[in-house]
Amino acid sequence: MIKPFWEDDEVLDTLAQRRWVVIDDAFDERFIEAMEQAVPWQGAASDLFHRAAIGRQAEQQVIREIRSDFIHWLDRGDTEAVIQYFWQQVDAMMEAFRRAFFLPINYYEGHVAVYPPGAFYKKHLDQFEKTSYRQITLILYLNKDWQEQDGGALRVYEADGSHTEVLPLAGRAVLMQSAEVWHEVLPARRTRKSLTGWFSCLPMEERFLGG
Ligand code: OGA
Ligand code: MN
Predict the structure, then answer these.
(1) Which of 62, 66, 167, 176 places its Cα 20 to 30 Å from the Cα of 8?
(2) Model-level pTM?
(3) Ligand 1: nearest atom to the Cα of 183
(4) Which residues have C-beta within 8 Å of that of residue 122, sequence separation ≥ 6?
């Protein structure tokens, strides 16, 4: 269902050198359909999804001027087969990134995100100001038949200030160096779904707290 793109040297080299990389056809329709079934998307307005907040724990605030999507965190205890399968791929990826980049990555956190029409996420980095745990961002897009006029592009800023826009097409994955790559989500005109997560190097005490 998900191709082992983390074993592809070209992908890893581009991630290291350009700092981000797009992988098309990284996963198939079966994965998307299984995710459609397994996640309570309709609950976007209910308690299962939370209006996404910025920052860590006690400092979290919902700042609608910065982001306006809804998120639902994945749990290793989720019993849905596709979510279990996804965690297995996460573990394989973690191992591949540890080896490729000599990074002591020991943690992954991920959520599905729903951007209702009009939602956006302003320009940001994925690393928090006070901590530097997050190393690699992974985004999987779950939107079949997405058209340019549907908006919702991921705009990625290069080190030289230029930018590239990436449509959230079904089967497309993006990897980014979390601390280096500035990016934003332009307003979507259609409901936009994704699975976003971060591979981190957590210090031991944070892992015990459940980070
Ligand atoms: C994020 C993010 C980008 C996207 O959730 O931090 O930047 O394209 N998402 O969904
Ligand atoms: Mn981000």
Answers:
(1) 167
(2) 0.91
(3) 7
(4) 65, 66, 67, 184
Q: Could you report the per-residue pLDDT of 167-210, keeping only the tens digit for each?
A: 999 999 999 999 999 999 999 999 999 999 999 998 877 766 55
Q: What is the pLDDT of residues 124-156, one digit of tens each?
A: 999 876 678 999 999 999 999 999 999 999 999
Residues lining ligand 1, judged by CB closer than 6 Å?
Answer: 113, 121, 126, 139, 154, 168, 183, 185, 194, 196
State in Å: Cα 80 to ligand 1 middle: 24
**Separation of 164 CA from ligand 1 center, angstroms?**
14
Please give the radius of gyration of the chain, using alpha carbons only, rounded to the nearest integer. 16
Residues 141 and 194: their CA atoms lie apart, in Å, by 5
Atom 6 of ligand 1, residue of closest alpha carbon:
126
Name the residue of 66, 70, 121, 150 whose CB sits within 8 Å of the most ligand 1 atoms, as the mutation to test its pocket: 121
Q: Is CATH 3.30.200.20 what the domain over 5-210 is classified as, yes or no?
A: no
Provide the residue ranges of all domains of the chain, joining segments of one domain with +: 5-210
Ligand with smallest separation from the Cα of 194: 1
Q: How far apart are the first and last CA of the chain?
A: 29
Backbone φ and ψ of 165, nearest 5°:
-110, 135
